[in-house]
Predict the structure.
Amino acid sequence: MSVTLLLMLFISSPNSNAQSINDQNSNDNTTSLYQQKIDAAIQMLQSDDPQAVSRYIDAELHPDTLQSFGGEGRERYIAYVSDIKLFYGALSLLTYEKLSYEQPSAEPLQLSARVKSTNTELEYLLRLNLSAEAPVKVTDIDIVVARTPAVDNKPADKLNKQQLAQQLSAYVDRLAQRGVFSGVVLLADQNGVLYQSAKGMADLRYQVPNNTDTKFNLASMNKMFTAISILQLTEAKKLSLTDPLVRYIDPALFAKGDFDQITLQQLLSHTSGLGWPTYPDTHPNNVRNLNDYRPLLKHLPLNAKPGSRFGYSNEGMLLLGMVIEKVSGLSYDDYVQQHIYAKAGMTQSGNFDIDGVTANMAMGYFYSQQLKSMQSNWFIHGIKGNAAGGGYSTIHDLHKFSTALTSYQLLSPELTQQAYSAKPELNSPNYGYGFSVRSAQNGRVVGHAGDFIGVSSALRIYLDKGFTLVVLANQSFASEPVINKADLLLQQL
């Protein structure tokens, strides 16, 4: 597909009335280079050539990016970009985004173009991060939904709740027909369920379809349950959020560093400074429970001063799970079962062993570049969920969780508000205690997403509008378009 568009370039200068010829030539050359970089990415994503991705990776990706994925970095990044191509389908270029030379030196230079996906019918920003040194290489490729349309600024038609449910249903049907949604969806208001649906297969090998009671992997959504548990123990005055972590976990288990400076509220808000660990090869059978991770804590790095910045950390939630066990005297699973699932009426949720037999559980799937077919993810993720993620639930159980949370059945109103209020004072502007926090056209929206290879899940609670949206999918990326379409439709109410 050949696309020719004018690059929209906005150049800021200390003196708007004059600019040297040398500066202008330099900017022109830089502009040409940046246009080439983003054009190359778009051409690769539009190409039908099966070798287009690998050629692009070899020519454009910075070697440090590939090395960060380990010894199989090239193959893994090719698979990642190929998955993007497969999921979004043909991407048509709408416009280049603004480009400014006043880029903060501490931030990577990011280019972006607005594109539209054939498969999802939504507009996105294709974003490239570039290295600062020559030769300029791409250090990261990302695609995120564009919150507002590029053109057509006329107000959207108003919808009532029935029309909203009908349009969401039709959209999910189209995604499923195109093969980009396998999972379940529930939309409810304060009076009950407005729409629910199940699409695709829970098990492709035996052709078992998903149903609205199927259990799906939650990935990181379990972090909400861990945070609620810590806040419940706070409410019971068994701990304080300002307590240091080492009050509950032996500091001798950690490597050298300021681990004694980490507090529980920093772990809850992902501001502890913890980095991503490199664990030794461990058989899945050896890490079924939180205690199994204790010998591995010495591999946990501290990459920033505790409290200095936001840095998403799975291990931080694992540590909080250990704190829950220490303080409550129960296993993490038993505590959550007794104090969250039972209170909310969640009878189909838990950290199930995937090598056991659990009824009505969806297997996760992703497209394998090597096999050229869909492949199960059960051989590449943990054998059992824990305080950081990997548990299972259903759309109905998560709806019950939302109802119990917002009606203060799990926590007092004060601590509930603390859970889903952003913490800028802790350097966490978009995250509370175990909950993501956003505020836009639909008012305050809280919840959590969960993503892993073959897993795409999300809970969104529209606090101001009184809606709950649950999307659980056993296919990579699949929840994202449903969430964003529902968000757009809710703006039309």
In short: The two ends are 38 Å apart (CA to CA). Confidence is low (pLDDT under 50) at residues 1-24, 100-104. The CA atoms of residues 9 and 99 lie 6 Å apart.
